[in-house]
Every structure is written in structure tokens, then in C-alpha cells.
Amino acid sequence: MKNDLESRTGVRAPIIARRKFIRAAATTGIAGSMFPASLGSLAARGTAMKVAQLVVPTATKDVTPFKVKVPQEALDDLKRRLASTRWPERETVRDWSQGVPLQKAQALIAYWRDKYDWHRFEARLNAFPQYRTQIDGLGIHFIHVRSPHRNALPIILTHGWPGSVVEFMEIIGPLSDPTRYGGRAEDAFHVVVPSLPGFAFSDKPVETGWDVNRIARAWATLMQLLGYDRWVAQGGDWGAGVTHALALQRPQGRPGVVVRQRPERLFSRTRDASADHRLSACGFGRGSGAMDLREVSGVDRQSRQS
Length: 306
What we know:
Layout: H1 4-9, H2 15-28, H3 30-52, E1 64-66, H4 72-83, H5 102-114, H6 118-126, E2 130-135, E3 138-145, E4 153-158, H7 169-176, E5 189-194, H8 212-225, E6 232-235, H9 238-249, E7 256-259, H10 264-267, H11 273-281, H12 293-305
Parallel strand pairs: 4-5, 4-6, 6-7
Antiparallel strand pairs: 1-2, 2-3, 3-5
Helix pairs in contact: 3-4, 4-5, 8-9
């Protein structure tokens, strides 16, 4: 890597010259006036990085209200790092065949650095009731919006990868209070939207084993914890994997699932005849797609009336 002198003069400075300079500086006392400031700057930078970290309260087995509050130091640190981006040379083609075009990447970074309003988004997210609780030893973050309508059907929505609860922010309102959006009260849902382990404000696992089956068991526990004895589930991408696992496990209280991805794409390596039978019993077959949300809610409405 070229140093500052090299970049100014265009002449390659041998490494040994720096070593001689440092030794000479140490004998003349120059080092005492130079290096403490540099080390102090590095120490201050390290302290700023620690301050910039978002600290999430430790989850307990209680359901504890939670609000997102990203420290301003973290946002400032992000902008500094974006401003310090070291750009590669421009691609030699006019398309995307060599990767993201430099101009596109620079425009994206400029948007995040100069225009994106995190505080505005944070306020939108905090408008939803959020909580954290500990399930199977792991802190789980989730949104929980109870519908104002009687006989609303509880539903748990699972995001994918890469993704977050943000995927569902636009539909939580219409699902929980459909009459405000021109819908019917009988189509209302109590909405639960958890963050997958290691995503957003859920804890990062410190051990292996948090596969879709373990997450599905955690989701079933969460719904029981919230007092729901009859509920449905929906998911896409890896959220579909979790939802399919719920279908196979058939936990108490879950009458139906809705997915946006076929089960054979997720379970092709592990499925057996027993799994096929259980999927068929849940409304899935080798050639089937997802169950319709209206079908699930309709079936459950009948069960609630009986």
C-alpha cells in the first residue's frame, strides 16, 4: 500500500526509511510529541465505536414492551464510514455483467449518507406495539397488534432472508382493522410478527441448531404465551420454511398455514413418505401451491362458531 509521501511525490519510499525515521524520532524526542496524539485518536475512535453500538435489553420470560432507539452516535458513525468508502475503478462495460456499476453504487451510498431519515423510519416502527421475551433460551423480538374486532383470528407472520418485520408494516393495519380500509370486521386478525433469531432485535444464537423446526416450535410457544389457542401462520422465503415446519409439527391450536413457496423446494432433501402424508393432511401435496388466506380464515371462522 502506498503511503502519503509516495502519493505526493510519485517516488516509491522504501519501508526501511520509515523505520530509520521512527528510530531517529525516538532518540530526538520527536516521538513523544507525535505518537501519543495518534494513539489517543485511535483510542477515541475505539471508544466511539463502543458507544455507537445498539444495546438491546436482556430478554426475560416475561413479555416486555420494547422500543427501538438507535443512538445518534451509531448513526454518525455510519455516516462517517459511508463517507470513507474506498471506491474501485469503474467497470469497462455499460451493463451489469461485471457487477454493480460504480455509478449505481455511489448513488446508493450517497442516498444512505445524505438523504435517508432513520429517525422517521424509527418512529414508524415504534408506532407498532413491540415486545421481547425469552423462548428456548433466546430473546425474541416481535410486533403484536390486537384487533379491535371481536372474533378476530390470530395470525403469525414470518419474514424471510434477507428481510425483517419491515416486510409486513404496510399490511398490519389492514389485517388488524380491515373496516378502516374498506374491509369487513369478520376478516380481522390479531397480528403477531416476530423477528427470526439473529435478525433485527431478536438475539443472535450462540449455538447451532436454530433451524426452521426449532424456530417453528418457538413460534408455537410464543402464540401460547400470548394466550392464543386457535391461530394460523403465514410466511414467505425462509418464513415459508418455518411455516411449513409448523404444518408438519401440527402444534395445538394451529388449524391452517399460508405460504408463498412450495414445500418441496425447502424439504426436498429431508422429506419422506411420512412428511408427504402430513403435508397433504395440512392442505399441501406435491403439486399444490399455497393455501389461500381466505380459505384458512373461512375454515377457522366455522370452527369458532361451532
